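Q: What structure does this chain adopt?
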Amino acid sequence: MSFDPYLLNELLLKNGYELVAVMPPKIFGVYMFKIFVNDTVEISYGGYETYKRVPKDTYRVYDAVISAIDLLKQNVVEPFLPKLYRAYVEAGDSQANIVSVMENFIAKNPLPYPRITFSYNIYKLDGQRVYDGKTWFLILTPFALSKNKKNWLWIPINEDGKGSLYSFIVFRG
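A:
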């Protein structure tokens, strides 16, 4: 068993994904899974949500990467914005913490790997900002809240694997 990032890149290219070296991890495409090579390979979403750890075997890593991509594609919720708004309203706070909104959303719309799928669905809104006459905004995580993972959610901001940590979502009309 061995891990060969060049072979992994060749395998990913056949599926339309490219492995890009970013120190220290490797990143590919909109899916923001990073691959860290230690004694095992850890595949994570945005570097914050571990999806899977697999042995240092290129083909096992490839299978896990494709599985992770498929998981996200299978769990795109359409239409998502009305569900997001309903979860926000049900949280009962005009400055609802995004984690509370996420927990409320998941209680009514169960998905595997909830933080990842919730984050990805927000990303997939792709500029849709208004629902029922109200515009939604994400508020970046203040430093004081960044220490506890339950206080924030990483959400991609582009197709290059860049994103930010957000703690609050607000709808304003």
